[in-house]
Amino acid sequence: MTLHIPFDNSYARLPGRFFARQAPVSVAAPGPIAVNAPLARALGLDPAALAGAEGVAMVAGNLVPEGAEPLAQAYAGHQFGGWNPQLGDGRAMLLGEIVAPAGSPLAGRRVDLQLKGSGPTPFSRRGDGRAWVGPVLREYLVSEAMAALGVPTTRALAAATTGEAVIRDGRALPGAVLLRVAASHIRVGTFQFFHSRRDLEALELLAGHVRARHYPGAEGPRGLLDAVIAAQAALVAQWMALGFIHGVMNTDNMAVSGETIDYGPCAFMDGYHPQTVFSSIDSHGRYAYANQPQIAVWNLAQLATCLLPLWGTEEAVAVEEATASVHAFADLYQAQWLARFRAKLGLVRGEDDDLELIEALLSLMAADRADFTRVFRGLAEGTARDEFLDRAGFDAWAARWQARLAREAEGGARAAAVMRAANPAIIPRNHRVEEAIAAAVEGDLGPFRALGAALADPFGAVPASPYRGAPLEDQRVLRTFCGT
Ligand code: AMP
Ligand code: MG
Question: Which pLDDT tens digit goes with each residue over 7-27?
């Protein structure tokens, strides 16, 4: 059961200005929270070794495993639209990378192993480099739920407590560390870091690294830009189809791999409204649900700007081509969005009026703040009507929908299966996540484990699951907070 991790660290081989070497800072008393055994096995790692004393010590930061080359990555970024030339991993450290071995389910896949909450780094500024169990469990639950929902995302491989208190808003809270897995942690902000320093050599190296790692088929800077744009269009369409609000779509929180990254004040909507915002710091609603595609475009335009110096043509040509690529997002996104919402209505073929049919339902939902997840799942289960106050409005819409379903190739026969595969029954509802965190603070991991188990099968048909219910009035979570 000795811990063996076959590190192969490509990022650490990049020049020193890409990062700061920094070892995790030891903690008082490492304790286990969880090990994600299926993910460990998928990566060819031994779950028992991760759960053993050495594994827990590694997650908490008290043991640097052989072959790890811990470092904090440098990046910059626009935070709420404001430029910050120097961010970087302030409470995270990359231990290194592994390539899942032949024979494992993810064979050949290269992933980062990163600790989050492992102590200060040269990029910590005024922060303490730590995390409390709240954000760690939140990211664990929500990122794993996203994976089970089929959304590209960073993953949670393990978590541990530190035995030390973390002070937040004057409260002493139990400290924790998350061991996170990602295709990479390279962000739009990583490109911005070098672009803003006019470091063309580093930009070239970074683009090459990203191409080799994520988009081997992409040719030149434009191919790379187009690939990232397509990945983000598909990703954001998936968020929208699940009622997911990222909450802090700063350029430093957008991974060029196309994975969802940085689960801070993220939330799944309960009652639907396009302008929904949860994040306590998003006072102007910049990152509201309905704004997410436009914000993605804004971020991708920043990436495009960073790639211009690599274009190898006259500047005017480069600007024109890059602009065309960024503008292509709209159509890519719309096609993905339409396909996903069609599936949510059980539609496989496309008809011109489908967009109007979908929007009509969303308008009724918005008027009643009907529960996003329960309405769509209810379409498959015959209970959607119960979610509306305006029953007559819903009935009129449902008549149109039924007529449309009848025009599908196999009538409605296949529709229920299509809808069940597109509309989850179980999502990480805010009040359940908060409940799990509150219990964990008191030392009870039972609710965290039970919720995690339920979220592993979001599309399954468990009609009586306690996790399917919308929050009662007094359970409703209105604000979520950054993961600090
Ligand atoms: P975020 O918006 O949560 O992704 O964080 C923005 C920046 O703040 C990143 O550079 C983080 O590394 C840094 N940061 C957030 N929380 C802390 C903390 N507790 N200690 C040090 N740095 C932090
Ligand atoms: Mg971040």
Answer: 999 999 999 999 999 999 999
